[in-house]
Design goal:
Distance between the termini: 23 Å
Shape: elongated
Strand order of the largest sheet: 1-2
Largest sheet: 2 strands, parallel
Order of helices and strands: HHHHHEHEHHHHHHH
Number of strands: 2
Structural class: mainly alpha
Helix content: 55-70%
Number of helices: 13
Strand content: under 5%
Length: 192
């Protein structure tokens, strides 16, 4: 009973790694505990010498659930970081992406200019930086460190970009952070 309670603590505060805790919970068929602990797991890395033996000891189902969680999270983030420019697109599709009008509040509402001609190379570099971060973080750690992502030095090139037509900034830091949080919160945070 104490072990189960320790695994359900927020965060789990016992010895071992989150992967060890996940292996214990799945090995004992404790699905609630495995689901909870999976929120604290960084992406599985079979080349990591500490993770490899634990990953090899997991059941096929437990390993597939874990791999599926990170595969779905990564795919959803890639899709989310693709900007939806067209407001006429079906909302079910747009809700999965950053919405242009939400991240470019001032520029989008500028009646004299509706240009979407921003520097895609800078945006792609920003996407890569975010994807590299998620590849190293657990779902909980990624959410906790999300605010640091918006520090000016992290994405100054994206924020400094101005419209070639009207010279107003394309992106609004606060609006981008809010919209990014919306799409990040849509992703799964634990195994099913």
């Amino acid at each position: 009973k104490r072990i189960r309670e320790a695994l359900l603590a927020d965060p789990p505060f016992h010895s071992g790694t989150p992967l060890d805790h996940y292996a214990l919970a799945t090995g004992l068929s404790w699905s609630d505990e495995a689901r909870h602990v999976s929120r604290y797991l960084p992406p599985p890395n079979p080349t990591n010498p500490q993770q490899k033996p634990v990953l090899q000891a997991l059941s096929i189902d437990a390993l597939l659930q874990l791999l599926s969680l990170y595969h779905v999270r990564r795919d959803m983030l890639i899709k989310a970081l693709s900007i939806s420019y067209d407001m006429k697109t079906v909302e079910d599709i747009r809700v999965q992406h950053l919405r242009w009008e939400a991240i470019t509040m001032d520029h989008h509402h500028n009646d004299s200019c509706h240009s979407k001609d921003h520097n895609m190379a800078q945006w792609e570099a920003f996407k890569l930086k975010v994807l590299m971060k998620i590849e190293r973080e657990s779902p909980v750690d990624f959410i906790h460190k999300l605010d640091k992502l918006w520090e000016p030095h992290q994405f100054k090139n994206v924020l400094a970009e101005t419209c070639p037509r009207c010279s107003s900034p394309f992106f609004d830091r606060e609006a981008l952070a809010i919209e990014f949080r919306r799409v990040v919160d849509r992703r799964p945070h634990h195994v099913d």
